[in-house]
Amino acid sequence: MAATDIARQVGEGCRTVPLAGHVGFDSLPDQLVNKSVSQGFCFNILCVGETGLGKSTLMDTLFNTKFEGEPATHTQPGVQLRSNTYDLQESNVGLKLTIVSTVGFGDQINKEDSYKPIVEFIDAQFEAYLQEELKIRRVLHSYHDSRIHACLYFIAPTGHSLKSLDLVTMKKLDSKVNIIPIIAKSDAISKSELTKFKIKITSELVSNGVQIYQFPTDDESVAEINGTMNAHLPFAVIGSTEELKIGNKMMKARQYPWGTVQVENEAHCDFVKLREMLIRVNMEDLREQTHSRHYELYRRCKLEEMGFKDTDPDSKPFSLQETYEAKRNEFLGELQKKEEEMRQMFVQRVKEKEAELKEAEKELHEKFDRLKKLHQDEKKKLEDKKKCLDDEVNAFKQRKTAAELLQSQGSQAGGSQTLKRDKEKKNNPWLCTE
Amino acid sequence: MFCFPAMGHRHCCALGPMDPMRRSPSPCPSRPSSPRTPPCEMLGYVGIEAVLDQLKIKAMKMGFEFNIMVVGQSGLGKSTMVNTLFKSKMWKSTVQGLGTPTPQTLKLQSVTHVIEEKGVKLKLTVTDTPGFGDQINNDKCWDPILGYISEQYERYLQEEILITRQRHIPDTRVHCCIYFVPPTGHCLRPLDIEFLQRLCRTVNVVPVIARADSLTIEERETFRRRIQHNLRTHCIEVYPQKCFDEDINDRILNSKIRDRIPFAVVGADREHLVNGRCVLGRKTKWGIIEVENLAHCEFPLLRDLLIRSHLQDLKDITHNVHYENYRVCRLNESHLLPRGPGWVNLAQTPAGPLATPQPSKVHQQAQEDSEDGDEY
């Protein structure tokens, strides 16, 4: 068979060749975009925050629509996650938006385990994707990606600092998802308090080592805007779906007796910044970070946990497949061993029981024998006695017959004597034995 | 603004038995496994379509990759065609000098260049196959080529299953294979048919009639029809494959293309002056054949298909269909050495991947024993 001899002139510094005319591959980005448009996009947002901080309202405001759902009560026994998927369409772009919301977060008395359902949910999405990726026959290109791309963490507008629940939850989530902290219902804080609050929050996050999502600054076109926005984190937002007439325009706003807060006014709150960053500038980057950083980390940990590793340079391919087979054999071997053990234990128990029963049987037999012997002894004794008695009776009978014989002889000879004697006996009242 | 349910996606391929000859990609409608999605009406502009720009920026930053392979007998103008396609000197047109011996074995040669146009960077890899079909006995001359293609899939697969894998796996898989049919004017030769049958299962193949300037327009048409008939008779599915048409627009567009395949092309890398314009062409005593003139040859169609409209599609089909097929096969039979027609014993490749461990040797032994047993 002819050997393949590939002379590659490739390297890190590939030769750049000048073009002598218009080739036409500058349409490549457009081709790519068209393909993506026909496939549709999907984006998954997770909203973590205490009940009543305005998560659903903010989602409604962000996406300019009314998503269905009733407000949650405060009486949930544990933290649950509620997930809804919607199809949005804008010009020719279709977006499959999934919004996951925590229900009952921060409502319990003991909040130690509040973060667990959230972490489990995120891990479950990664797991589902990993399972699909590891399948032999897979359909990755049409797989509905349910991994969480962005996590909006709602901070209560106390004005002081982060709550310990917030810190703990964010620390647990920062390696699994892109966290964007926002201050909810920020119309309750004045401007000066807000700046202090933001500084306090950022310093607390830094000192606790929480990695929040930084907007990317490596691409020149967006570096500037992302850089400035990074400095405004966490965003102080207000959500409202009511429209009020301000001036001569209808705007989303909240009306108070002392004034009206306009949602889309940058002087009033950071809502516009959030929308810019989340949707208009960095949506693709959020998705890419989720896939290339968080998902890869999860995948690596999971595979290492399962016992797979990349073997050394001159190694076999499909260490996955072979390790899997080896593990499978190992597992089967273990199963067999266990089965053997159980069987042996069973046999042993049976033996023991058998021995016990035998013992009991033996005892019974002995007892029976003893009783029998006793019985025989008794019988013998009785028979002896009977024999004795019989002997005596016989002896007595003999004596009786002998005596009668003697008497009959004597009566013939001295019959009268006996008669007399009998008469005397008869007359003598004292000798009568009648 | 209203909403529609999420649109259909690229069809996936259901696999039959392992024999590469008999594998036929059957279309299966792929529904995305997404939850029930209620339609939502948006009351104002949100800015979701900005994601398209974000995508574009990212793509331009990362650059694109494209790997193309040209297969055909020597002297059909493969290197010239590549130079013409990408309007640059990819490599010197090979001319068999008087002193150089004809290559005894098929040696594949790859060249990689980075070309840039209007900010779009393209890393282009061209693989040439000098010596294909040149020997007296051309039996199994397709094996090195199929082996090369499989090796690229293998490389990608190995990268993909690493625990710690790179952010962007370098894609060396062959996205498109241009097959040069010599302009005999009759029909496809047995070598062509054999090769195309095997190749179409693993890679996108675009057959072209090479050196079409030796055929008149009518001869070209009859030749083309005959080739199309041959392809249909032998169930060879060339690109664009009918079963991967997504929707009605695709089908219409692709039907037009399928009607003209194989394109009759002429390659040229010299410029001549025609009517005051500088055009690429071949100069002969009886006229100048303009390469980019649709009346003269169909090179513009080929170029448009490959580069301007279907490049991304070629890459997608390679990734979603051919690579997945390879992966399924490989994962299913990873405990056996690849055997059968069209497969090459990859044990000697530089990557050295197939040092079989103990258990699979046992398997192999068992299989050989059973095979021996079956011969009685």
Automatic annotation (TrEMBL), chain A:
Under InterPro entries, the record lists: G_SEPTIN_dom, P-loop_NTPase, Septin
**SUPFAM superfamilies linked:** P-loop containing nucleoside triphosphate hydrolases
Query: Per the annotation, which location comes first and is thus the protein's main one?
Result: other
Q: Its encoding gene is what?
A: SEPTIN6
Q: What is this protein called?
A: Septin
Q: What does the sequence similarity comment in the record state about its family?
A: Belongs to the TRAFAC class TrmE-Era-EngA-EngB-Septin-like GTPase superfamily. Septin GTPase family.
UniProt KW Metal-binding keyword: no
Q: Which Pfam families does the record match to this protein?
A: Septin
Keywords on record: Cell projection, Coiled coil, Cytoplasm, Cytoskeleton, GTP-binding, Nucleotide-binding
**GO molecular function list:** GTP binding
- GO CC annotation, single: cytoskeleton
From TrEMBL, chain B:
List the GO cellular component terms: cytoskeleton
Q: What is its main location?
A: cytoplasm
Q: Where does the record place the region Disordered?
A: 348-376
Single annotated GO MF: GTP binding
Where in the sequence does UniProt note compositional bias of the Polar residues kind?
Answer: 357-367
Keywords, sorted A to Z: Cytoplasm, Cytoskeleton, GTP-binding, Nucleotide-binding
Q: Which residues form the Septin-type G domain?
A: 62-333
Q: Name one Pfam family in it.
A: Septin
Give the subcellular location. Cytoplasm, Cytoskeleton
Q: Does the keyword Cytoplasm apply?
A: yes
User: What does the annotation say about its assembly with partners?
Assistant: Septins polymerize into heterooligomeric protein complexes that form filaments.
Function description: Filament-forming cytoskeletal GTPase.
Annotated PANTHER family: SEPTIN (PTHR18884)
User: Could you say which protein family the record assigns here?
Assistant: Belongs to the TRAFAC class TrmE-Era-EngA-EngB-Septin-like GTPase superfamily. Septin GTPase family.
Name of the molecule in the record? Septin
- Organism, by scientific name, is Ursus maritimus
